[in-house]
Amino acid sequence: MSIPPAPGLAAITAEVVQCRRCPRLVAWREKVAAEKRASFATEPYWGRPVPGFGDAEATLLVVGLAPAAHGGNRTGRVFTGDRSGDWLYAALHRAGFANQPESVAVDDGLVLHGAYVAAVVRCAPPDNKPTPTERDTCVGYLAREMAELATVRVIVALGGFAYEAVARLAGLRPRPRFGHGVEASLGDGRTVVCSYHPSQQNTFTGRLTEEMFDAVFARARALGAVSP
Fold first, then answer.
1. What is the pTM assigned to this prediction?
2. Using 50, 70 and 90 to split pLDDT, how confident is the model at 166?
3. 13 domain-assigned
4. Residue 64 parent element (H or E)
């Protein structure tokens, strides 16, 4: 069984799933949910904003870009039901943060231990490209989650978009240039570790390998994300 969120996180989740503040994203997510992909034609689609997921006492926070149109937008859980999620949760499992290596549905039994997964933007955007206005409208949810997750010591930013958002929220100055494995101390006991996003564009081309991805989460553990 999944672990119920803490009261503060539950309140954020309740707001997220009802949000309709970005007309373009609302129209797109609902269009995708109505038309569906042929391979999921018989499945119900979530078609709403996707909240964060994980352990309320997490010491590791993983931040992505946004839900996938036929992943989180279909299943209702971040990084669930798509190839990027396959990579992420398999890596979290190998690193000891997840009880199983797969995430295919909200009721599949996945539990995260010491980790919480969220995104900068909570609705699936066309072409995976939110506008700056959509980003700025939505990023407050991430800011509130970061405030609630008081035990987080390591933030893994998946891709430059997530890194920029986290750096802005944390007031990171100076800001190192994004790159796989780049680290930046936030000066308050937290460290940001950058990783290429586990998108098919990166994993199919070999720009991101399992070894590279595992090294990021091994480094998170070494920085104190979980006890050995």
1. 0.95
2. very high
3. yes
4. strand 60-64
